[in-house]
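In this supplementary section we document a worked example of the pipeline. Step one takes a protein sequence of length 30 as its only input; no multiple sequence alignment statistics are reported here. Step two produces a three-dimensional model, which step three serialises into structure tokens for compact storage. The input and output of this example are shown verbatim.
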Amino acid sequence: QKGTGATEIAHQLSIARSTVYKILEDERAS
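The serialised model returned by step three reads:
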């Protein structure tokens, strides 16, 4: 169960990171 939780957290973090990068790119573009 711990391993699954860690995988889930890592997945959410990667999503959050890609979202942040997208926001930063939008800021830079405008």
